[in-house]
Sequence to fold (331 residues):
Amino acid sequence: MNCWIRIAALVAASAVAVSSCAAVDVNVLPQPGVSYGNGYELVLEFESVLNLPDRAKVVMEGTTVGVVTKVTLNSDRVDVTSRIDPNVVVPADIRASLQQATVLGDIYVALERPHAEQSATPPLGPDSIIPLAQTVSPPQVEDTIASLANFVSSGSIQRAQNTIIGINRVTPQAETARQIASRVAADLADLSNGIETVDQWLTGVAGTAQVLHNRIPTFQDWFSPKGMTGFDRLTVTAGYVGKLLPSVGSIYANGYWLVPLLESVADAMGAMQRDKRAFEAEVPAWRRLFYENFLPQDKYPAINITSILGPDGRELSGNVQDVLRIIGAAP
Fold:
């Protein structure tokens, strides 16, 4: 009987010991390092804190300033409670993100100060909250894997490989590269020999800039209200001229019917020119005819008879009286 009592007591003691061990949480056990027990608490709101370990460190400017003490899951966010070193001042516009030092390292909370040129903000007090607008959650593992899968399956690696192959194909051989280098050296030598021309060009550019600088008052007058009014009126005038020119052009385009007339006029003028030249060539002969023959005879009418032959061939000029009687000059 006493044996059974001892066995029952031993079983009960074992059950109590096992249940007490099951209630032990390793997170409540003291851990090495600073626990910041005398610090103040800050609550950071994140959309997701995937893989954030318990008692993760809080780092600001590369220095550990606190530790995560509790993670609370809400409906639309995750509240990460951290205990901060009392000697550390956290500004109200601090930025928080979940980072990882190495690929296999633990995730920690990183606090980043705003840019130095921004105005100073008051520090956060105990139990203050850093809202979602100032926190950045890590990407989901599924999204990372999906992006990697898209990158691999989209052919980007194959395109990169093809690009490298294409670069290798177009890369010149050693002899060709040597020729290219020689040509570049020759071009650079020509450029150095013609540096005086470049200097002249730069001098011309400088002179042009100086002229423009000297005419700044003119440019200012152009772009003044008065000058802009002139430009506006010129634009209106150009608009009217632009409407007038097509009308003149239509008259010109529809004047093809004048071409035959103009050709006939040109032929007539050519004929008149030829006739004028022929007339001018005949004028001296007509002038000799009138001035040497008709006009002297008209001014001094007379007939010089040198010989008169009768029907029988006898010379009759010796008998002057008979000759005058024949011509009616004597009875």
